[in-house]
Amino acid sequence: MIKRLYLNVFFRVLIDYCILGLAFGLTRDLLTLKGAPFADPANKWVLSFSFLSWWYIGRAFHLFEDYRSRPFALEGIRILKTILVLGCCLTFLFFYVLKSYPFPRTFTLTFTTLMFTLIIVEKFMVKQAMLYFPGRDAKGKKILIVGASQVGLDFYTAILQNRNSRFQVAGFIDENIPPYPGAAYLGKLSQLPEVLDRTEIDDVFVALPQWQQKEIKEVIGVSEKNAKQVRIIPHVHRSYSRKSQMSLLEGVPVLTLSPTPLDDPAKQRLKRTLDLFFTIILAITVLSWLCPLIALAIWLTSKGPILFKQERWGLGNRRIVCYKFRTMYHGCYQTDAQGKYAQARKTDKRITPVGAFLRKTSLDELPQFFNVILGDMSVVGPRPHPTPLNLESGDKVPNYMRRHTVKPGITGWAQVNHARGETRIPTKMQDRVTLDLWYIENWNFWLDIQIMFQTFINLVKGEEEAA
After folding, report:
1. Which helix (H) or strand (E) holds 22?
2. Residues 221, 223, 225, 227, CA torsion sign
3. pLDDT tens column, 101-133
4. Is 115 within 8 Å of 21 (Cβ atoms)?
5. Do strands 252-256 and 245-249 pair parallel, antiparallel, or not at all (unpaired)?
6. Residues in Cβ contact with 460 at an 8 Å cutoff, skipping those fewer than 6 apart
7. 408 contact partners, CB below 8 Å, separation of at least 6
8. Residue by residue, what is the 3-state secondary structure of 211-268?
9. Cα dist from 283 to 276, 321, 365, 374, 383, whole Å
10. What is the spatial distance between Cα 320 and Cα 312, in angstroms, rounded to a whole number?
11. pLDDT tens digits, residue range 184-243?
12. Mean pLDDT across the stretch 178-188?
């Protein structure tokens, strides 16, 4: 199985290299028409550098994985990322090493455009071919499910509904006949040796509940004695996600229900570096003159402090002090007649004229870059909510508190997707939480850059949802 996996990766990389060589040749021919001396030995260095870069960048973005059971759009995004990073590497090569290379910009643009087009076509055709000719592993692996619990039935249903599944269910074993149409009942647990002896089985999937530890051990022993691969289905199917991971911690297998990219300390450091770099650049170029002007406008138009400080919740439910420019009249009410936190509305009479402009343009959030420097917040992340709203939403909105598994942000995926402003209607808060959780589960460096860019565009245009 492992040997077959390595062969699969080898052929994927080999085909990519053929495409890369074709794109390089076409680019060379196109630029030769401009009179570029492409007999130059530097081409060998460029081609070798491209081959080496493609391998390492592709591995970093998991480009060589099997995508048969996943949407092609996911593979397309990773192809785009790989091409963009390859283009940056070539730019670095031409700028610092091969300074005399003819038409470096034209070459990089043409080569990466051809690569993206050809690789997309190639990957799509390979994917379709693998689906049409699934091979011996795709439909030939017959499995036995031990345990007709809800977990086992859910797994069986998932296999039936996935036309690209690599498994065929030979049947169930359980003390009772599984109440499910089409499920072949092969016998009781005590009959497992006879079932394995008379039935062609490749893998045994154990779906017994955890309290049946004795039976689970017996199933594992009998299956391994018959040279069958054993797989355990955890009884937490209502909680785990598609990204749940099993790992060994201190030699003990541990299932992580909702792993996130930012669980990795190296990625946390990368995000922190981006936060500090962006904040320092913004402070030098914009905040140094814009913040004093805003502070002066607030001081001249309404009485009270310039900054508004409010308790909010950060990483791990830790309380933080969030800083904003004051946009409401000093001393105005914070709760409504029912004693609930009074969220700001578009026509809220508590908001000052200057405050309305600051909220419209999100400039009232600028002091939170101080929170970023302190390490309480990140530039990009789920927006922190006031403590009363946090407590209220935590009780009503499913998975709301999972937002606190990362640092809160000044802007976020929900905000650039127009999920901002008042959330009195529960569905609006749920939409925001859904977007925040997607960001947490799919974080990467480029996504943060994209959100920063989209935030700038929205700031220039103005936000209708802002209150």
Report:
1. helix 2-32
2. negative
3. 777 788 888 888 998 889 888 887 877 776 565
4. no
5. antiparallel
6. none
7. 312, 313, 314, 315, 320, 376, 377, 378, 381, 382, 383, 384
8. CCHHHHHHHHHHHHHCCCEEEECCCCCCCCCCCCEEEEECCEEEEECCCCHHHCHHHH
9. 10, 20, 14, 14, 21
10. 5
11. 888 888 888 888 888 888 888 888 887 888 888 888 888 888 878 888 887 765 555 556
12. 77
The CATH class of the 137-238 domain is alpha beta
- Which residue shows structure tokens 């785990």? 240
Q: Grade residue 408 by pLDDT with cuts at 50, 70 and 90.
A: very high
Task: Write the burial class of residue 264 (CB in 10 Å: 0-12 exposed, 13-18 middle, 19+ buried).
Answer: exposed
The pLDDT value given to residue 425: 66
Structure tokens at 456: 């700038």
Instruction: Supply the DSSP symbol for 196.
Output: H
Q: Is the pTM for the entire model greater than 0.70?
A: no
d(CA 86, CA 94): 12
Tokens representing 84? 């963009």
Distance CA 465, CA 455 (A): 14
Would you say 334 and 317 are in contact if contact means Cβ atoms under 8 Å apart? no
For 106-142, b where at least 16 C-beta lie within 10 A, e where not — what string? Answer: ebbebbbebbbebbbebbeebbeebeeebeeebeebe
Write 15-18 long-range contacts (CB < 8 A, 24+): 15/122, 15/126, 16/54, 16/58, 16/119, 16/122, 17/51, 17/54
Domain definitions of the chain by residue range: 2-132, 137-238, 265-461
- Please state, in angstroms and rounded to a whole number, the distance separating the CA atoms of residues 192 and 145: 11
